[in-house]
Design a protein that fits this description.
The chain has 21 helices and 13 strands. It has 689 residues and is an alpha/beta fold. It folds into 3 domains: 128 residues, Chitobiase/beta-hexosaminidase domain 2-like (Chitobiase, domain 2, 2-Layer Sandwich); 323 residues, TIM Barrel; 151 residues, Alpha-d-glucuronidase, C-terminal Domain. The longest helix has 33 residues. The chain is globular, with a radius of gyration of 26 Å. The chain binds 4-O-methyl-beta-D-glucopyranuronic acid. The site of 4-O-methyl-beta-D-glucopyranuronic acid has 12 residues, from loops.
């Protein structure tokens, strides 16, 4: 008996490895019988290419797990799933429909079939209606990509879930089975491209030794419809080719790249192309040769063109001008180049103008480059969002940005419609997420951060999905189908980002975070290698007030937006308080639209943030009986850590800014019991090597 009980417990203890692809037996027997009606066989009515084989194997695996029955491939007259092609569907699209007692999954191509199979599995996993359905889907964005900031020695820049997934030393001989599970997870949410290495790129990836390793990865990812890209070091001709220069206009440099690209395609015939960080944060680029970003990108584009490869050129640049405003720099460097880029170049822009803050206004380049396809770069890994100890559901952040109107071509020109190409008719479209996966058994460190990987993929496929719907799917596949628990967890997810903003950087405060590691509060940071790496550069607090004046009386970064957008943010009286300190310098005594004085509102938000974390803990406790105990305990532990960290944020920021405001913490709030000096010590410890 004890033994039986033990077996039961062990079988049910979950460690999160299976992500949202658990395929556990459905407990709802009426759903099981509904699905069994079409799960008697799977017939493949098209060429069994590797991608189609993947689709078939996944469907068999899923059906066997969910329904408890093995499904063969011998066709019968009815009661099966039929996989077929339908060239009339848009690229990568699919149609699922019941017909003559069967379920047809038609794909425009192999990948369409694969995505259709995953959609069917999602419907079953979420116990949705399948009989009588007709679902037609196609992705809104062509290239849906993860960017790994993984280094050759196994570390990950801004990675918080262990080491890199890629074991470069063991490749190409040893293929870790995790690569395949990683590929499955991506394919299940429609991700079709992966840049495997850090944008702060080692030239090593372009050596024959490494190309062999990258080829081995590409071979694993290909049957899942995923293409490999490489981040390149712009100075590779000098570093690897021993040329005297890497000047993009020098014939020997162009030749070096042409030959290198040919070599890459010998290893990886469907290689996607290059991702490039140039002249940014010390990385080499065309500018040190007196050339422009367009010169650099076009040289690479020329080399890749014969193979239909793409150049993804990042716009994350900012020069260290103490008198300038970092907010404006990428715009000033890139806007004048609109129209100068080759056809196979895409410019990849971060969602906001500074750097993946918990809240940023959208980047002013969106809507400003009608002749250059712009890709979105979101960060899935939580660099400024509490690493893997803070629960922050990022779909809310992604959606907020995607749904903001740029007014580039009249009302309704949302950021989403810029990047899906519909506003400017871009010939090619792309979206990238900086990956949060690592070698941790559960992939993402915080189990709730799995939702961010999932949500990124789902939004990349269809940006009109709501954050609530995505959360709903993910919870049902990952945690539980119990309606009360689903709604409890969903509430936590949906409120989590605002809670994090409140306990770290409310009211539009930004970049007041620990130097370098980007963790914990450090609003007092006033000296660094560059002024725009300090905190005081951004908050500008003194006894008269706080905030960065980016209106016409200040840096006028606001002037980079269309008049309709400026209109929303230019007046401190009407500017949404969530962006207030992004654009305005506000006196501590200013009465806000909320009815409170700025200082009081500022304090209030931090305390609300703490209450928010406590609320998440309470809600999480309520679902304990309804979810896996091991996974529950893991999240509960991290919520407790988050509370400790949130208290540090609150106390550090309130005590520090109070030295300027000279005002008491408004009642009934209880002022911090620690001193500013104590808080500074805590942050100093974060900085110790
Ligand atoms: O957010 C900053 C990070 C750097 C990163 C850089 C970038 C890869 O702190 O670690 O470098 O952005 O996006 O290039």
């Amino acid at each position: 008996m004890i033994c039986l009980l033990l077996c039961f417990c062990v079988a049910h203890a979950d460690d999160g490895y299976r992500l949202w692809l658990k395929y556990d037996l459905l407990s709802n027997s009426s759903k099981r019988s509904e699905y069994r009606r079409f799960a008697r066989f799977i017939e493949v009515r098209t060429e069994p290419t590797p991608v189609v084989e993947t689709a078939l194997a996944e469907l068999q695996r899923g059906i066997q797990g969910l329904l408890g029955t093995k499904v063969g491939t011998t066709p019968k007259s009815r009661g099966g799933v039929i996989l077929q092609k339908d060239g009339s569907l848009p690229e990568e699209g699919y149609l699922i429909e019941s017909k003559d007692g069967n379920l047809l999954i038609s794909g425009s191509d192999d990948r369409g079939i694969l995505y259709g199979c995953f959609e069917l599995l999602r419907l079953m996993q979420t116990e949705s209606q399948v009989s009588g359905i007709k679902i037609r889907q196609a992705p809104k964005i062509r290239l849906r990509m993860l960017n790994h900031w993984d280094n050759p020695l196994g570390t990950i820049e801004r990675g918080y879930a262990g080491a890199s997934l890629w074991k470069w030393y063991e490749l190409p001989e040893t293929i870790d089975p995790r690569y395949r599970d990683y590929a499955r997870a991506n394919a299940s949410i429609g991700i079709n491209a992966v840049a495997v290495n850090n944008v702060n790129a080692s030239a090593r990836f372009l050596t024959a030794e490494y190309l062999n390793k990258v080829k081995a990865l590409a071979d694993v990812l290909r049957p899942y419809g995923i293409r490999v890209f490489l981040s390149i070091n712009f100075a590779s001709p000098k570093i690897l080719g021993k040329l005297p220069t890497s000047d993009p206009l020098a014939p020997e440099v162009r030749n070096w790249w042409n030959e290198k690209v040919k070599e890459i395609y010998r290893y990886i015939p469907d290689f996607g192309g290059f991702l490039v960080k140039a002249n940014s944060e010390g990385e080499p680029g065309p500018q040190e040769h007196g050339r422009t970003h367009a010169d650099g990108a076009n040289m690479l584009a020329e080399a890749l063109r014969p193979f239909q490869g793409k150049v993804i050129w990042r716009a994350f640049v900012y020069s260290p001008d103490p008198a300038g405003d970092r907010f404006k720099e990428a715009y000033h460097e890139f806007k004048p180049l609109d129209g100068n880029f080759d056809k196979n170049v895409i410019v990849q822009v971060k969602n906001g103008p500074i750097d993946f803050q918990p809240r940023e206004p959208f980047h002013p380049l969106f809507g400003a480059m009608p002749k250059t396809p712009l890709a979105m770069e979101f960060q899935i890994t939580q660099e400024y969002l509490g690493f893997s100890t803070n629960l922050v559901y990022l779909a809310t952040l992604f959606k907020e940005c995607l749904e903001t109107d740029t007014y580039a071509s009249g009302k309704g020109s949302t950021v989403a419609r810029i990047i899906d190409g519909s506003v400017h008719q871009y010939p090619f479209t792309a979206i990238a997420g900086v990956a949060n996966s690592g070698s941790d058994r559960n992939w993402t460190g915080h189990l709730m951060s799995q939702a961010n990987w999932y949500a990124f993929g789902r939004l990349a496929w269809d940006h009109t999905l709501s954050e609530a719907q995505i959360a709903d799917e993910w919870i049902k596949m990952t945690w539980t189908k119990d309606p009360a628990a689903v709604s409890g967890i969903k509430n936590i997810l949906l409120r989590s980002r605002e809670i994090y903003v409140n306990h770290t950087t409310p009211l539009g405060l930004h970049h007041v975070i620990g130097q370098g590691i980007h963790f914990g509060p450090e609003p007092w940071l006033s000296r660094s290698a560059r002024p725009d790496w300090t905190s005081v550069y951004y908050h500008r607090a003194d006894s008269s007030g706080i905030g960065f004046d980016r209106t016409i009386s200040g840096s006028n970064a606001l002037g980079l937006y269309r008049p309709e957008v400026q209109q929303q943010w230019k007046d401190p009286e009407t500017c949404d308080v969530k962006y207030l300190l992004w654009f305005h310098r506000v006196s501590w005594n200013k009465k806000l639209s909320t009815g409170r004085l700025l200082w009081d509102e500022f304090c209030m938000r931090y305390y609300q943030g703490i209450e928010g974390v406590r609320w998440m803990q309470d809600e999480w406790n309520k679902v304990r009986p309804l979810v896996d105990p091991e996974m529950h305990a893991d999240v509960a532990g991290r919520l407790a850590v988050q509370l400790r960290e949130a208290l540090n944020w609150r106390d550090a920021c309130i005590l520090y800014f109070q030295t300027f405001s000279q005002k008491p913490v408004p009642s009934p709030l209880q002022p911090p019991t620690r001193t500013l000096e104590e808080l500074k010590k805590i942050v100093e410890i974060y900085q110790l090597k």
